[in-house]
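note to self: dont lose this again. the chain is below, predicted strucutre after it. 300 aa total, dont forget to put it in the shared folder this time
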Amino acid sequence: MKIDRREFVTTTVTLLGAVPYSLLKSTKVDFKPIRFGIVTDIHYADRSNPTGTNRYYRESLIKLSECIDLMNQQEVDFLIELGDFKDQLAVPKEEETLVFLGTVEKEFKRFKGPRYHVLGNHDHDSISKEQFLDTISNEGYIKTSGYYSFDRNSFHFIVLDANYTSEGKAYDHGKFDWTDAHIPKDQMDWLKNDLDRNKMPAVVFIHHRLDTPPADKIYCPDNAEVVRKILENAGNVVIVFQGHYHEGGVSRLNDINYYTLKAVVEGSGPENNNYAIVEIDKDLKVHIKGYRKTESLDLH
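---
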């Protein structure tokens, strides 16, 4: 199916901000820009819209299909979903939840390039972390983990998993409070080492927000500030992409951009879809082209 781009409401975000000179200096003549797709909070389940909510779970599969068609047409370098890939029934059943996960993963696999996943809290709501990871796949990994990294073109990409309680216990079968999120010490140690070993410009993906606005701290890991400090000390992190907060948003803290993409599940009909193509050029300027309800932004 070929998508007529005129059918979409498209927007462009340009996050310019200051980039450390040392990082720009490291870019060479053979530097290869990157162009990839992002989508988040699909929340797919074969379930009707609950009274009093704006979540249309069943429609998310159609919205994702539209995204996949566009990404295939545009031949982006890879596609990543930022968590809450699936959901569950009002009365949760493990076997049904696994069917929903398998269904949305099958649709995601229609993308003809490399595909990646970020774990969200609803990905653990009636199944375990292991069950989720055993059902999906990430390009280049035989055994999928909740956090990992990969290189593409001239960039290093890092995926984080904040789906742990403040005590460091992994979310499992809905036995957690979604406002209690945490990145364990072993994962933060891995993050430091990974950034130390890779000095290419880095991009971070996480479901939860790391930019901790005072009014929205419930959407953030309790140690978000510590994680941000690791990213800042590395000196090569260009931007962090996030989901979880369905309204979306953008901020800049200590020379790192934080972009929260709007949710797919909110609102009925294709006009309420959300996804984007990200381009990072040789000057490390980030251009985000949003589709459907993603707003136009121009940050300097």
